[in-house]
């Protein structure tokens, strides 16, 4: 079993979905998708007299976006960054309430955020995603989803998760999709 912590607003997590699924398929390993909220910052505007630190943050944010866009192009994905990152907490809480295989929901939520620019904190939007991708649909209740997300976040932080995507396998934690080759070796040794 491969546990993967994601946040739908994380471009790194979105770009990891396809390669992660391909790796799991090659090793016949089920994926346990888990929610972990991250903070995505917009590219900051610089004041007229910007400090070195402010300039560095802007340059670094722009560089990260260029790298993400390059990887998206390699996967033939259109990566459209929102001007302001939108919230995804309701959709993440709903992820934790889904029983069984969560893959279709994860794919639908990432597509909704990155391609359709959907509001994943809107109950109607999240309920619709659940209805189209889950065997036993339910309504996205904000209170239940908030409690489920809080519990999941606390459990992930206890494991050492600090960003998404994060992978847990064989009692080991890996942060970032760049570790997929090593994770593949662990999956092969488990098989």
> How many structural domains are formed by the residues?
2
Which range best describes the helical content: under 10%, 10-25%, 25-40%, 40-55%, 55-70% or over 70%? 40-55%
Poorly predicted regions: none
Task: Indicate the CATH class of the largest domain.
Answer: Alpha Beta
Shape: globular
Strand line-up of the largest beta sheet: 2-1-3-4
CATH topology (fold) name of the largest domain: Glutaredoxin
What does the main sheet amount to? Answer: 4 strands, mixed
Topology record:
Elements: E1 2-6, H1 11-26, E2 31-35, H2 52-74, H3 89-97, H4 103-114, H5 123-133, H6 142-159, E3 166-169, E4 172-175, H7 180-190
Parallel strand pairs: 1-2
Antiparallel strand pairs: 1-3, 3-4
3D architecture notes:
This protein is an alpha+beta fold and 191 residues long. The protein folds into two domains: 2-40 and 86-190, 3-Layer(aba) Sandwich (Glutaredoxin), CATH 3.40.30.10; 41-84. The protein is built from seven helices and four strands; from the N terminus they run βαβαααααββα. The chain has helices at 11-26, 52-74, 89-97, 103-114, 123-133, 142-159, 180-190; strands spanning 2-6, 31-35, 166-169, 172-175. It has a four-stranded mixed β-sheet with strand order 2-1-3-4, sandwiched between helices. β3 (166-169) and β4 form a beta hairpin. The longest helix is centred in the first third of the chain and has 23 residues, at 52-74.
């Amino acid at each position: 079993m491969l546990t993967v912590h994601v946040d739908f607003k994380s471009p790194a997590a979105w770009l990891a979905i396809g390669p992660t699924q391909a790796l799991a398929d090659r090793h016949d390993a089920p994926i346990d998708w888990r929610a972990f909220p991250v903070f995505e910052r917009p590219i900051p505007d610089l004041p007229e007299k910007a400090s070195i630190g402010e300039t560095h943050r802007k340059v670094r944010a722009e560089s990260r976006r260029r790298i993400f866009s390059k990887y998206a192009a390699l996967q033939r994905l259109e990566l459209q960054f929102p001007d302001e990152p939108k919230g995804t907490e309701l959709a993440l809480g709903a992820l934790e309430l889904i029983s069984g295989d969560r893959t279709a929901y994860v794919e639908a939520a990432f597509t909704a955020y990155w391609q359709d620019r959907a509001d994943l904190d809107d109950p109607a939007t999240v309920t619709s995603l659940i209805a189209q991708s889950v065997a036993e649909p339910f309504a996205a209740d904000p209170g239940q989803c908030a409690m489920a997300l809080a519990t999941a976040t606390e459990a992930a932080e206890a494991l050492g998760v600090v960003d998404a995507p994060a992978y847990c396998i064989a009692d080991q934690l890996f942060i970032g999709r760049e570790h997929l080759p090593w994770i593949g070796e662990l999956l092969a040794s488990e098989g």
